[in-house]
Amino acid sequence: MTTQSNRKLFSLGALAVLAVLFVAVILISNTLLRGARVDLTQNHLYTLSQGTKNILASIDEPLHFTLYFSDKAAAESAQPEAAALRAYAPRVREMLAEMSARAGGKLRVDTIDPLPFSEEEDRATSLGLQALPWGQGGTSIFLGLAGTNSTKGKSLMPIQIGRCKT
Amino acid sequence: MSGSSFNGTLAVFKREFASYFATPVAYVFIVIFLLLAGVFTFYIGQFYERGQADLFPFFNFHPWLYLFLVPAVAMRLWSEERKSGTIELLLTLPLTMWQAVLGKFLAAWAFIGIALALTFPVWITVNYLGAPDNGVIFACYLGSFLMAGAFLAIGSCLSACTRNQVVAFILTVVVCFLFLLAGFPLVLNFFSAWAPQELVDAISGLSFLQHFAAIAKGVIDMRDIVYFLLAIAFWLYASAVVIDLKKAD
Prior knowledge:
The structure holds two protein chains of two kinds.
Chain A: H1 2-32, E1 37-39, H2 50-57, E2 63-69, H3 71-76, H4 80-102, E3 107-112, H5 119-126, E4 131-132, E5 141-148, E6 153-158
Parallel strand pairs in A: 2-3
Antiparallel strand pairs in A: 2-5, 4-5, 5-6
Chain B: H1 3-22, H2 25-44, H3 47-50, H4 56-59, H5 62-74, H6 76-84, H7 86-92, H8 97-117, H9 120-129, H10 134-161, H11 165-180, H12 185-192, H13 197-204, H14 208-216, E1 219-221, H15 222-245
Helix pairs in contact in B: 1-8, 2-5, 2-8, 5-10, 5-11, 6-7, 6-10, 8-10, 8-15, 10-11, 10-14, 10-15, 14-15
């Protein structure tokens, strides 16, 4: 009887360990396998185009891109779109990282999470980024890119899901 | 995999696969699957009204179709064997537990694969009507098939937990639903009240819907493939453990 219940305990323990391992391996593979992908779309919508690569190669002054994404506010938001936004933001970030890697050190990319009522939020607004009122209590959620060179700063674009042509 | 262990899996696979077509199960399933897929695509998905040459309205409903149809296939995998007592016969055969679990799973997966493949007229239709991006459609089929496998593996494990097929069906639908919506507030709110943000993020990364949507864009990301394969492996291992545990019951 004891060996039976011992065995049961052991199996259940093994299952629990495995479940934790399962989540851990997925988290690790998320970082390890970054960029390992095949783009099957006809026009290679999700791959940097030759034109983009040419532009990146011809940058002649240091540029600084800042991706504003309200990760925390989106995580707390009750809007289903905010969850989709959070799944989408890492892809934008990876695309920017890929661009940065191809720009020969001329393009620096940072990510900022502009918390509500913070200086970063003021900065994002002053750069002209538009916010979505999806946060808890109607606070703003930003997903946008701002770029600066040595002399001036400008908001480049609000980023929308599904617009990936680069 | 050595030759003999492959043979064992293959034997179970053949027997199981044939058993679907020996009973009306296969025909009923395939007809209903195709009918529902058609209804969803053309009426609810408004395939014609959209005027776009893609299969978005077709694949968009696959997760929800699978949510009810795959558990119906999976529920009988082990609970029927246990109820009729044939599980004892199966497990006394010169087979390892793994071969039995894998053989049954692969047979059911191949069966769903056939149902999925039989939707090819939709692919032909959209190619006849316009010039769709066939690379994206191929990726969607692959993603859909992988997602079906993950649903099925969950069903396999839960079917092993009970000798009652109805219980197995309902449990599978509920667990699959949770996995589908893992990235959405409905599930996340339950955790976000007490769990650290890292854990909540880890849970949201388990969403079938998000991984499927990522593949369905037309980009085969290794992370999505690895996720589905790992999910299948995990739930199949869990099935083997559960069967082993309940052997004496």
